[in-house]
Amino acid sequence: MTDHPTPPSLPHAVRSTPWHTDTALAHLGRTSATAALSVNPPLVRASTTVFPTLAEFKDSYRGTVFEAPRYGRSGTSTQFELQAAMAQLCGAQSCIALPSGLAAIAAVLGAHARPGGQILVQEGVYGPAQVLCDQVLAPLQCRIDYFDSVDSLRELWTDQACLVFIEVPSSLTMRMLDAAAVSEFAASRGVPVACDSTWGTPLFFDAHALGIALSIHAATKYINGHSDVVLGLVTGSYEALASTRAWCDRQGSHVSADACALVLRGMRTLGLRMPRHHASALAVAAWLQAQPQIERVLFPALPSDPGHALWRRQFSGAPGPFTVELAPCSEAAFEAFINALQLFGLGTSWGGFESLVMPAIAHHLRALPVQPDAGRLVRLHIGLEAPGDLCDDLAAALAHIGHGAGPSSP
Length: 410
Prior knowledge:
Blueprint: H1 21-27, H2 54-59, H3 77-89, E1 94-98, H4 101-112, E2 118-122, H5 127-137, E3 143-147, H6 150-156, E4 161-167, H7 179-187, E5 193-196, H8 201-204, E6 214-218, E7 232-236, H9 238-251, H10 257-267, H11 270-289, E8 294-298, H12 308-314, E9 321-326, H13 331-340, E10 345-346, E11 356-359, E12 377-381, H14 387-398
Parallel strand pairs: 2-3, 2-4, 4-5, 5-6, 10-11
Antiparallel strand pairs: 1-7, 6-7, 8-9, 9-12, 11-12
């Protein structure tokens, strides 16, 4: 089994302290705990913020940086604790919490979209983000262009470009993109890059160090880690976040204090969970490569993956989700494989403690009642179970596809 990776150094915002990342995760976001004589910051639920004086009430409405109580919709101290902790962890000035990862993506895209403008989107990003671009933004006369490389980004670029949106690696297909090169090109033209950084988390992927202006995380997944809350986070400088923050204020976007408290609690163990996900995912992925029922494993952390060299340059680890292509099989055999899995739940999320399996169906094939026998993709999320048990479970399920039994699990 692959050794656990050395946790990455802290982003620049907290390098002034002698703290290791794990220490920071234990102590960030606890400013209000002292007054409550508590280890954890208090859970503050409020629809109304009450001010002791008129002067303080007026001061709360000066400026556009909402990091102190103003009104329940803009947050309580519980939300501010989570936002401050995430901003420091990511080496950013500020952070915005939103109701979900998709809400965070929608806020960033919506804040930058304009009639006559151009948003350049990486091919293969999260499916609902593509639907949002095609069915909401494009009808509003915002031009949407999809690119698959830095070269195609240059070719599609126009003077109306207002945002570049990427995801590394790409959803389902796990393709790597040179985020640093994209950011450098866009910055030279004064256009921000937004990145869905959920897969790598701040521990394995330092988005802002690569020049990414807006880093988006579905905290639903690894940041929380317990599959019991839905929440999104966007980090960046005050300037980079200004239009997104204003968009959220206009749209009435709000996240509950309870959700923030759960995510802040889950964040405490991120430094322990991520190396375990990394090691187990590598072990299971390597085992799957040797199985006759597997055509290929799409996982940039594997040396055989075409994006491996780029992954090594821009990531310090790899978490649990990756995709496999099965050997050609019938729909009945595929269904038998999925249904035979005992330790992998059939679900569409990932990032929790449990392992999951999901058919990874390309958008152009989703309307078909029966999928083609060849090129059938499955996304696996490797949870915190023992990898040997997961491999045994997969081996028993793969037997339904045929091609003989593979070697024993590690």
